[in-house]
Amino acid sequence: MTLDTAFMLDHLPDFGYAALVTLAVAGIAIVASLLVAALNSAVIFFRVRGLTWVIRAYVELARNTPLLIQLFFVYFALPSLGIHLSNYATAILALTFLGGGYFTEVFRAGIEAVSGSQKESGLALGLSRWQLFRIIVLPQALRIATPSLFANFIFLLKETTVVSAVAIPEILYTTTNYIALYYKTYEMLLLMTFLYVLLFLPLSFLLSWMERRFRHGQFGI
Q1: Whose CA, among 20, 31, 134, 180, lies 20 to 30 Å from 88?
Q2: Does the pLDDT value for residue 95 go beyond 70?
Q3: How many whole angstroms separate alpha carbon 32 and alpha carbon 16?
Q4: Which residues form the ABC transmembrane type-1 domain (predicted)?
């Protein structure tokens, strides 16, 4: 078997664009998921009546249904209700729905891991519930939850392969399209593998380094 390296080099810019699309979609979804999880965790911590059970039901639904089903629901079901979204908005919304559920559970576990004596001490010092959450509970919960949180960053980035189902030109979509057009299967698969390794390995090392820094309190948390 001989590889058409000239063909691979000619189409490398297209795969570079696909990698940028992958990172952009995943990055927006991760930030949005963190915001959703932070809001949900605050509601759970303050035990807002009527909302806690809704959030718990959302977490179970998000974590126990496949992303592809969530994606198809947003893409095909919402238009029947008069809600029309672009394929990019659909992908980001579905990824955020999934990521928000996982991140909420990570935050909840981190908050519950903070010892009750510290919470009681904060209240005894006259801190309000909001001050207790912001000054004592949240910083420690973030440090405890960092390994799981970073693992879910990688997980959500990998899940971007699913959004090719709604024609998002990310890496997998570009690969399958070019295989169908040019029948350069091995070349395209090699480029796809190279790009995923190029994306995931440095990110994994970076997150591992950040995790060690958080664990030793180097960021002042």
Answers
A1: 180
A2: yes
A3: 24
A4: 19-207
